[in-house]
Amino acid sequence: MNDDNNSPDITWRHFAGIFVLSLATLLLELSLTRVLSVALWYHFGFLVISTALLGFGVSGVTLAISSRMRARSPLDRTLALISLLFGVLTLLCFWLMQRIPFDPFSLASDRRQWLFIPLYYAVLAAPFFCSGLGLGLLFTRGTERIHRLYAYDLIGAGVGCGTLALIMPRFGGSGSVVIAASLGLLAAMVFAISRARWLAVSSLLACIATVTLAFHADRFLPIAVTALKVTPPIQPIYTAWNTFSRIDVYERKAHPEENTPAMRRFVFDAGTAATGIQDLRPDVREYLSRNKKDWD
């Protein structure tokens, strides 16, 4: 059956494409919860959930009022372009987020924040608008296979959640967002592979370039941390991400003339919490004897 008809055949491309797009969407959503915990405060991680729902809701309204897209647009080409836009906007919007001086605790003292709030929401919601539009369009046009489409959607979403545990420690917050963008580009390639070869090749090349960028994302797309978080005015000696936080380790050198021992400080999520660890070398007994007054 022709792709331009109202009820196109649903093939393996659509099942694979919806799987990858759902995976990318949930990976992006969970990655942004970690990024906002570092950039702002941990409770702003929940902002991503409401913003993702906002993007999905607006996409549903758009699809409902656009009869041409809903019923007459070439399905595979449209899905490929939407997925491509998801990947591009994920990168662009993440870059813009780091340049918006959004500081929710300065609403009373800085009137600009009332403009930054909706701007921040719009930038954050844009990729989810695209993924919601793609998923909604495929569900609308594939009603005869809706049970299988929804199954692949749910499986992809579940895999996306689990994949975070593998990707976040390796690529960090920025890198995980970039990987989500690359998966959106991969979905575009899958949707376009039979109907628009030029679009499929372009999407594949962009996907490869984006994966390469993910290895250097912390340098090219660093997370802008709010000035309200207090961190030591030096570079950390060690930084690593795990599945739920970023850990920075700072070191203070010993100053015998001031009787201050060396100490390392673990900082959680760029200033949310910190723990100091004394240098106990060469052994605990000698450390306690040198610093006996601290324990009296």
* CA-based gyration radius: 24 Å
The poorly predicted ranges are: 1-6
Order of helices and strands: HHHHHHHHEEEEH
Main sheet summary:
4 strands, antiparallel
**Helix/strand/pairing category:** alpha+beta
This entry's quaternary arrangement is single chain
Q: Give the averaged pLDDT, no decimals.
A: 89
Strand content: 5-15%
- As laid out across the biggest beta sheet, the strand order is 1-2-3-4
Helical amount among residues, as a percent range?
55-70%
- The tally of beta strands, per DSSP, is 4
Number of helices: 9
| Terminal-residue CA separation | 85 Å
What's the shape? elongated
Structure description:
The chain is elongated. The chain has a 4-stranded antiparallel β-sheet with strand order 1-2-3-4. With 296 residues, the chain is an alpha+beta fold. It has 9 helices and 4 strands. The longest helix has 47 residues, at 146-192.
Features:
alpha+beta; disordered N terminus; four-stranded antiparallel sheet; elongated; 296 residues
